[in-house]
Every structure is written in structure tokens, then in C-alpha cells.
Amino acid sequence: MKHIFTTLLLSLFLLPSFAQKGEKIESLKVAFISEKLNLDASTAQKFWPVYNQYDDEMKNLIQQRRQQNKDERSVDDILDQEQRALDIKKKYAGLFSKILTAQQVNQLFVSEKEFRKMIMKRAGR
User: What is the pTM of this model?
Assistant: First the structure.
């Protein structure tokens, strides 16, 4: 039943609406991660501000990567960006562990990957 509700909720968000596409995806992401982590209200109140900072840092890193010409990126540039992403994840894993259980922190990173796969699949990529 829980999966049916999630699928229905996700489908509704994916339908065309007046909200911008990015806002819809962010709303879907919040709902998806909240469900996967089974956050109570108190934990969610502590978690989401920290997660939003993490997400902003990761988005900035991705934006920097997109600004670089793919043909001009060296192996060192690629590895440097991957290392920076790993450093951000390590930094925030420590911060998340002050709010979440170890299992929830692991589930967070797994859920992010699952969410990206789901969105890419639905987008037809």
C-alpha cells in the first residue's frame, strides 16, 4: 500500500502543472527521501536544513563541471571533481550522523541514487 501511494504521489508530481520543472523535481525528491528515511517531524526539522546545504554544494560542483568544455577536461580535472564530490559527501556524512542513525545515513545516499535513476528513466534518458 505504501508503494502504491508513493507511485501515485510521484505520478501526480510528474504530470504537467504550472510549477516549474525544477520545483516539481525538488518536491518529489523531498517526498522520496523523507519516505525512504522514515523521518519523524523532529528529525526532519533538523535534517532538511543540513541536507539543503549539502545539496547546494553538490549542485555547485555539478554546475562547475557543466561549464567546462568536455573536450578540454583532462583526466586530472575529472578526478579532481570526483574527489571534491567525495569530500563533500564525507563532510556531510559526519553532519548527517549527528541527526540520523548510521542506517539512515547509508539509506540517504542509496535513496539519492535511486531517485536520480527514477527521474532519468522517466525522462527517457
Answer: 0.77
Closest CA to 61 of 76, 82, 46: 82
> In this structure, what is the dihedral angle of CA atoms 53, 57, 24, 20, given to the nearest 10 degrees?
110
Dist. CA 33–CA 27, nearest whole Å: 10
The answer to whether the beta carbons of residues 35 and 88 sit under 8 Å apart is: no
Per-residue pLDDT tens listing for the chain (125 residues): 455 445 444 454 444 553 577 788 899 999 999 999 999 999 999 999 999 999 999 999 999 888 877 777 888 888 999 999 999 999 999 999 999 999 999 999 999 999 999 999 988 86
